[in-house]
Design brief:
The complex is a heterodimer. In chain A, strand 1, helix 2 and strand 2 form a beta-alpha-beta unit. Chain A is built from eleven helices and ten strands. Chain A starts with a helix and ends with a helix. The chains are: A alpha/beta, B mainly alpha.
Chain lengths: 350, 543
Amino acid sequence: MEKNTLSAVAIGSVVVLAVVAFLFLASPGRSPDPATRTIVVYTSVDQVYSEPVFRDFEKVTGIRVLPVYDIEATKTTGLVNRLIAEKGRPQADVFWSGEFGQTILLKNESVLAPYASPAAGDIPQQFHDADQYWTGFGGRARVFIVNTDRLAPGHYPSTVYDLVNDKYLGNSVGIAYPMFGTTATHAAALYRYLGWEKGRAFFSDISKRQVRVVDGNSVVRDLVADGQLAFGLTDTDDACGALEKGAHVAIIVPDQKEGEMGTLVIPNTVALIKGAPHPSEAKVFIDYVLDRKSEDAMVASGWIQIPSRHVPTKSSCMNTTGIRAMNISYQEVYTSLPGTQKDLIEIFIR
Amino acid sequence: MASSSLFPGIRIHVSLKSFLYALVLVLFFLLVTSPLIGLCLDLLQEALSGTLDPFSPLTLSSRRFWLLCASISLAAAVAAAGIGIGILVVSLLWRISRRGLVIILLALLALAAIPPYIHALTWSSLLGFLAQFLPGLTVTGWGISFWVELMALLPLSTLLAWIAFASVDLSLVEAGRVFRSDWEAFFHILLPLSVPALGAAFGFLFLVCCSDYSVPSLFGADVYALDIFAQFSASGSPSLAFLYALPLMLVMVAVIITCRSGIRTLAQTPDWLSAREGTALRFPRPFVMLQVLACVVILVQISVLFSGLLWTTGSISTFTHSVMVAQAELGYSLLIAAGVILISLPLSLAAAHELRRPGLRGGIAWFLVLLPLAMPASLTGIGLILFWNLQGPVFLYPGILMPVLAGVARFAPFAAIILFVQLRFIDPVLFDAAAIFSTSTLKTWVEIRLPLYAPGLFVSGGILAALTLAELGATLIVAPPGYGTITMRIYNYLHYGAAAEVAGLCLMITILCLIAGLGTVAAVRWLYRDDGRAKERKRESLR
């Protein structure tokens, strides 16, 4: 082996270095030309929906977007905690979220900077932060997705109380873990709306009935579409995704009758990061995302089902005109979120 | 040798070799403990500012206590069952040809690179389908969680069982067969001699299972790792999450330390890929039936996974489309894996030497190597940010090397332990002889040391690659803007419901691992082609 070892090691080293060099050169998103303007956007919006927005923005403005995506498996915890950990030396310019709870948390952690975008002038006041640290726009609603093979129309759920209704078997109903994501936000809204004791009792009943609690809204969607669950609570974008793929499902907006509480509508939120490395470009991006045309494009793509203002395109998945929303402020929901999460951890993780 | 005078009257003699060794060692321990250091600094800062209540996370309520017990029980049961099945399968396949054994081992390693969550989704779909015909079939609960977790870890457990058996000098078993039955030789010689390595394998599987919550949560079984994550989400404080994680980390470290003593007592030479001479062991019929049952379980696992992936992919065009769309992430994932291997192997080799030190020095080395293994992935990522996002080394964070550092922090300790095992089997007299007769350090390394280290380096490299490709929790947190890995793309597709693309990408990962494994085997064969093994191979081919 002596005469071959040196040549083997030498060849091996050259091959390894060549492979590494090739992979390095072929990797995406390498440091762009220093002359190119760039921004870094941290987003919890699904890559499938946010990436087209970034590409369109790049074409229009020539500013390159370097995105950092989140995934449902880390329940936005990863992205938000990354922003907090980077507070001393921010890397991101903009935070774009599919909900509002984590955005308000970032505001309270002094991660955000105020910016009042001129493009948000026609967005209703309820979507604006009082201190202008973030701006909301069109979003999603909490809905039931129902398997139409398992339930006849006359037996469809119509209110969140159907999650604890004895006419449905507990293990035929599903929700995502109510300590994470939009389900946590919905839970906090229910705790706030119903009162702490009633909210706690409601979720305790869900736990006692052995409703199937799974890893995320997309898992609820898949289990219902698969027929393993009769119905489940999820977001409109997940439900619409199943419908568009031809699954035997229907979408029911809960609590829409007169006198009922309505459903939680969860807007997108966008905010400027404090100390952003590229503040000018960040403001251009925020203006772009808040523009009416962008909201219209996101309705067309299927990300937004509940626009914040009038846009030409209607959601192809469901009729969202006149949806009754829960009468509750985002700040109120956020305030009850940490306590709700801790309470729900005690109820569901045991 | 250089000497310097740091203080008047004191002269310190430092050889270049010692200096380099110390430097490499410091770098290893710095890289693997950097997340821990970052978290500890953050913890200290919060404690000093008075914003942290350290006592409530450390005080186990009855709920958390039972959660911890249930998690430990699940992990222990999965690890034990995995090792048991691995023993049965390997004992049946022990006498097949070396080529067949290599093929099986490569297939197992390739399967180990598929994220456990994909196994879980495949089984969830199958159980949902079967539930239509078997109304009494339970699709949730601890039983199903145990089964699916076991299926996800079976490739790894079988691979580790094989390594354990390969660590035993078979001449001892053959000697036993002369005087006793094959069954007694297996039960009283082979099995006891491989128990230390099996114990180490148990510890490794226990570790992996303890820190995973994705599989149990899909089937309604709540584990302590999920509680840590939930507390992290609710509090937004990495320090608090770290404190919540401490009880589980301490249990994991205790188990690993117990298994470590097994590693240290491994004996004899592992000739892991050599042919096994003589006739196959003959076992009693009941044991043979168990072996066959174990093989059936493995085949079921492989069949369910592959048929699920193939069925969901649907067509070659879907497969090629998913590969084309994800080629950027694929390139970056391979770059990260290559980086992790290139950085980890030399550093782990130095650490492996340090693990051999007796007394306090070796004990400290073992503690520092084992502790990072017990840390949850997402906390590792946050710890890396807290450590590296400083005013100083701007080129590191958030550069493209950060996911490489995440891989090194999480997996280099595994490589150090594997190389430690390798070192135990190398006769140090060979190095002494080389030091006496060799005319240069480079020649010693190239012609003596590297060939002796090669099997351990290749095995470590393969395991590092498989673990790095499947890693998500820490990589997601530190991935630089504009970059994504193949696993991140898979989970994004999962959320979107693009099941066909997910299946296509998982198939691609498996194929890549198989190619990498075949390439490794080919390299080893070429490396050793002119030594005495050539005669052995010729004998095999003539049979």
